[in-house]
Every structure is written in structure tokens, then in C-alpha cells.
Amino acid sequence: MVQLRALPDPSLPDLDPEAVVQGRRWSARYRGFLLLPQPDLSWLVRPERSPMGVLPFRTPPNSLDDVKALVDWRLNQAA
Length: 79
Known about the structure:
This protein is an alpha+beta fold. The protein has one domain (2-78). It is 25% helix and 29% strand. The chain has helices at 17-21, 64-78, and strands at 2-6, 26-30, 33-37, 43-47, 57-59. Strands 1-2-3-4-5 form a 5-stranded antiparallel β-sheet, covered by helices on one side. The radius of gyration is 13 Å and the shape is globular.
């Protein structure tokens, strides 16, 4: 289940303050990870909390479904 959350979220850093003001900034939660879209259409994927079984990583420009599949693949590799 993916949970979308509008930002500003005080627990996350602001990457583009102008986008936050205009309300275009958002994040998604998926299987214990925060999926953060970046201005260059890539994604920053971070664990929600420590200890981390999978380190934070960036993805190339992809759709949200592709990023979720990559998270699933990395979780299977770590197990």
C-alpha cells in the first residue's frame, strides 16, 4: 500500500522551496521507505527509520510503479 503525503513535512528537508510554496511537492510511503521525487525526475528512496536494512539510494527518471518494483527487488536482495 502506498501512502501519499503532501508536503511540507517537518521531518523531511525542503529540496525546492518554490515548489513547496506552490503545493507541488509530495512524497509516497511504500514498504517502510519514503519515495521522494526530485526536480530532475529521478527519485530519492530512503528508509523511514533505522536500523537500515537497505541504504538510501537514487533512481534514474522512472514512474512511481518502477520505483516500487526497484524497492521490492532491493528488499529481496537484502533478505
